[in-house]
Amino acid sequence: MSSMFQEIVAFFFSTAGWILESSTLPTDYWKVSSDDGSVITTASYWSNLWKTCVTDSTGVSNCKEFISMLALDGYLIACRALMISAVILGFFGSIFALVGMKCTKIGGSDKNKARIACFAGVHFILSGLCSLSSCSIYAHRITSEFFDPMFIAQKYELGAALFIGWGGSVLCILGGTMLCFSIAGSFTKVNYIYRGAASHSRISSYPKGQAKSVNQRLTPDNSTSSRIQHFDKNVYV
Question: What residue range is the signal peptide (predicted)?
């Protein structure tokens, strides 16, 4: 029952993290313009993985989409690929987790379901790592430009989408780890040793009425050894 409860909690964490990762991919505010040193702000700039926009003081936004993928910076292409991989891995991890959980009726035997649940946990861990890497790469680019004194273009700060992605990554990694450790009880083997079986078989091998105990059968050996010792003494006489 405890392992089943652990699987349910792990599935809840992993699925919640995957939903957060999926919502991070199309979210607008990956980075927002910094107002540091500005007295009057007439417009705000923000960008995500797919477009860059400017919003004026009246609230009207004008956006420009990234049409050519080959013309993008390398870090944007890497972040896109990692986020898409995270969403795909989380999707398959959710399906495998539903099949491998003990509270479901599909998946075969307990050992087979445990293997599927562990496989789902690995998918969730990889999904969290991909999302964590994508958000970290994007955040590193923002902070490196912000603290570079030679960078004179528009500087940006970390947007809300990055924090959502980091939160989803932590939940996916935590849930996937719990899924992997929840299968420990499914492969535990207990071996029982019955030490009286050998002596019982030796006693029952004699015919009825002629069964002898182990100690009685060992007496001839002891008597033989005593005769040998007595014979050794007579040799020297």
Answer: none
Give the position of tokens 């969290």.
128
Q: How far apart (Å, rounded) are the C-alpha atoms in residues 141 and 164? A: 18
Nearby residues of 94 by Cβ (< 8 Å), 6 or more positions away: 11, 14, 15, 18, 120
Output the six-digit token pair for 76: 């944007």
Q: Is residue 109 part of a domain?
A: yes
Note whether residue 214 is domain-resident. Answer: no
Cα 199 to Cα 81, 207, 216, distances in angstroms: 69, 15, 13
Query: What torsion, rounded to 10 degrees, do the Cα atoms 129, 135, 140, 145 define?
Result: 160
Which tokens go with 223?
A: 């008597």
Whether residue 101 lies inside any domain: the answer is yes
C-beta separation of 117 from 97 below 8 A: yes
Whether the Cβ atoms of residue 31 and residue 73 lie closer than 8 Å to each other: no
Which residue carries 């071996």 as its tokens? 191
| Domain region containing 136 | 1-27+68-195
The set of residues, in sequence order, having a beta carbon less than 8 Å from that of 172 and lying 6+ positions away, is: 13, 14, 17, 18, 21, 86, 90, 124, 125, 127, 128, 131
Residue 99's identity, in one-letter code, is V
Query: What is the CATH classification number for the domain harbouring 20?
Result: 1.20.140.150
- Chain segment 52-85, per-residue pLDDT in tens: 999 887 878 888 898 888 888 899 999 999 999 9
Q: Is residue 205 part of a domain?
A: no
Domains identified in the chain, total number = 1
Lowest pLDDT segment from 75-84, 108-117, 119-128: 108-117
